[in-house]
Amino acid sequence: MTKKQYRTIILVLGALAAVGPFAIDMYLPGFPAIAKDLKTDIAHVGLSLTSYFIGIAVGQLIYGPLIDRFGRKKPLIIGLSIFVLASLGCALAPSVEWLIGLRLLLALGGCVGMVASRAMVRDLFPLKDIPNVFSTLMLVMGVAPIIAPTIGGYVTAHLGWQYIFVVLATIAAAVLFAVARLLPESRGADASISLKPRFILRDFSLVFRERTFLTYAVSGSLAAAGMFAYISGSPYVFMEHFGLTDTQYGIAFAMNAAGYILGSQVNRLLLRRSTSKQLTLKIGFIQFVAAIALVFGSVTGSLSALGTLALLFIFMFSLGIINPNASALAMSPFTKNAGSASAILGSLQMGTGALASALVSYLHNRTMVPMTGVMATLATLSLVFLLTARRSARKAVATQLYDV
């Protein structure tokens, strides 16, 4: 493909993958206003974030077989249309219960972009280039968490939180137009893919039997879930605990999102000297250290707002390196069932994210500890899983050599 085609495809795929996260980040500064208008508290508003994560986790499992069976573009158009309608519904929500339900529907529509974008990268690019392509995608995707909270804070302050969802509907409509007009169909319909439950379960089981997929999908999902714990707990930590305004919170959130983007771009340089496997393990240890420092500072009360931001920046920078490498390694064994593999990978990421988000809300005790404690636990589990998998692989190699 030409450079112009490459840039266009990356831009549209990045926008597709960013639609779902944009709907997470943009309404976070509106939490206090939403709680006030719907006569509830921030913890209950946080459940609308949890329902969104659940919707993304479940929805990706639905879209995986669909994009393998019917091609990539038709499910994309349907899912984005659902997203537009659900966004407008959220703007009209009369209660927090309605908001929670509509956010679930919003996720079921928006997650199609996350599944299809990963599968289309696997369709369109050589295997050796995929980690770099994912890093480039993250540069495009990373604009969303930088500008989304800032836009959300501005819209909340000047128009009201309801207009956040009007803006989301407008953005999704623009992405829908780009998909229809600019994005090529990377894989057509395949009648050999059955949508009968037993065949879908068979395809999913084949994905899980790939040891490489299981290792990097699980470890990467655990690492990424720490970000969702941060997203869920950060409105309280920064706006209530440290007293930042909604605009200041948007800036703080953007700084940490910039760390994620920076990590994804540094990853492209690191890949010239190290393999994806080496980077995932080494940077996983750095993320673990940052998370432990966060929870220690939270328990002792020694962390200032600036210190918290610095450690969160390191955490997010590390994730920017871990995520593209873990995703590329997990997807590497698949061609025919790339959609199903992408769906399971995304479902694991969002499923663990939903659990992390719910746990932070459940443990809410007007301190930083629930957020930082969940982040530290997840970073530790991710590192332990990688170390255990590597040790098992070494033992397997040693056994084979001995048998020979």
Automatic annotation (TrEMBL):
Membrane-crossing segments per the record: 42-63, 75-94, 100-121, 133-155, 161-183, 213-231, 251-271, 283-303, 309-331, 343-363, 369-389
Identify the keywords attached in UniProt to this record, alphabetized.
Cell membrane, Membrane, Transmembrane, Transmembrane helix, Transport
Tell me any Pfam family this protein matches. MFS_1
**Domain of life per record:** Bacteria
Q: What is its main location?
A: membrane
InterPro entries listed in its UniProt record? Efflux_drug-R_Bcr/CmlA, MFS, MFS_dom, MFS_trans_sf
Domain Major facilitator superfamily (MFS) profile: residue ranges: 9-391
Q: Key word Membrane present in the record?
A: yes
Q: Which CDD domains match?
A: MFS_MdfA_MDR_like
Membrane topology of this protein? Multi-pass membrane protein
Q: Where in the cell is it found?
A: Cell membrane
**Similarity comment: family membership:** Belongs to the major facilitator superfamily. Bcr/CmlA family.
**Protein name per its UniProtKB record:** Multidrug effflux MFS transporter
Q: Which organism is it from?
A: Pontibacter populi
